[in-house]
UniProtKB/TrEMBL annotation:
Name of the protein: Type IV toxin-antitoxin system AbiEi family antitoxin
Source lineage: Bacteria, Pseudomonadati, Pseudomonadota, Gammaproteobacteria, Chromatiales
Amino acid sequence: MDTLTSSDIELIKAASAQLARLNVTAKLDTCEPLSRADARLRLGWSGGTALYRVEVKRSLRPSTLGAVALQLKELGPDALLVSDHVSPPLAERLRDLGIQFIDSAGNAFLAHPALLIWVKGERPQEHLNPPAPSRAFKASGLRVLFALLSVPELVNQPYRAIADKAGVAHGTVGSVMTELPKLGFLAEIGGKRRLLQPERLLRQWIEAYARTLRPKLLLRIFQAPTISWWRELDFAQYGLTLGGEAAAARITGIIEPQTVTLYGTKAASLLFMAKQPMRAAPDGNVEILSKFWGFDQDPPTLTPPLLIYADLLTTGDARCIEAAQEMEGRLLDRFAG
């Protein structure tokens, strides 16, 4: 559960007001303690009512859809996504995934046994300004958070050591570590720093990574005639590390990759392309991104588990969401105790 801000409440009320045009009333309850959900919203119409568990998400994009879908799926069948605006393509994908939603523009998908509403294509009439993101969730701050979430014991290391593992300037670490307690993610307990609310922090990192950091990392996209070679190829010889769907296939064995995701340098991507029968393509099946972390991972041939998990969710694909869900427990087990 994220902390419900006044801006979130304003957005829920704006989206709820749009339902009045469809003769549906909405009553918000932000006081009742909830597990995971932001609030409860009771909808009423002629002949029935339904109580939903609300999750507020702004600026929904294809790359953030997977993380949002997984979170809504875990809330259960009474989950409701409330957003500022859901575009027609995203509305279609949400409906296909069985995710009910409303937005402040008047778009909606509600599928209750006694109620069916499907509206798409409405444009926002008024822009609701979200709170500005903190530095911790901007590109350089996300690198620091990635290091801390991947290597939890790093939180008690000197800032210079954290900066080295995160690949950022020393001052960036100081700024992030100052903000995390204000956001409720860090505290000093018994003379040691400790990350708090790791599940909430992990989810916020994944969404911000997909929106802010990942686009900056993309080096090249190729189209290969087939990608079956990923199982036998030694990517280390090119200075590359395997991630995404292919890495998840090695870990979970429950997914058949449709794309191959690799991390390395621009020089490594050129060497790799020269040795493989591939051509540049904007929506190809092989992508190479810049490696952005400085700590060792185990095994060294795969990207860190958090990054595999995040890259699965950026696809927004149902089979990748399922594979990510398989990995989630192991990620959170790192913070147990």
